[in-house]
Amino acid sequence: MYTSKELELLELLEEKGYLETKILAEMLATDVATVEAMLEKFKQDGILLGFRAMVNWQKINRHDVTAFIDVKVTPKRGRGFDEVAERIYRFPEVTALYLMSGAYDLQVVIRANSLQDVASFVSDKLSPLDSVVSTTTHFKLKTYKHDGILFTPHVEDKRLNITP
What we know:
single chain; 164 residues; alpha+beta; 4-stranded antiparallel beta sheet; 6 strands
């Protein structure tokens, strides 16, 4: 089980991202050595997996394509969905893979240079897998909010109220 300080540290890291251990120690009212020990424990336990910057690529007109591919599969006896999931997440295009409830079993997220690259991934790599029964592909058109961060500034509605 984890202490309240450890949970507080994880929440800070999730909200703020990477911060120097000195700053984290001040925020937690503890010493640097304690924070370093907690961070090392989280890494050893596979809880702290890394730090990433949240980049708004739309602002610099980067024109890559993000696709969300819903996949229906036949699970393997004794391995369930894990075997096919492992085959899929090994493709370099795959940025995320989730086991889902509902009409489809897996959701694959890929990033590619073009719609044609996505089509090639689905037809040449994903669909031919033995366990794959069907796929449905959706494309990201615009990001408004991701992981709690707004990508578009809130604009105040300046229209006058109309009353009946």
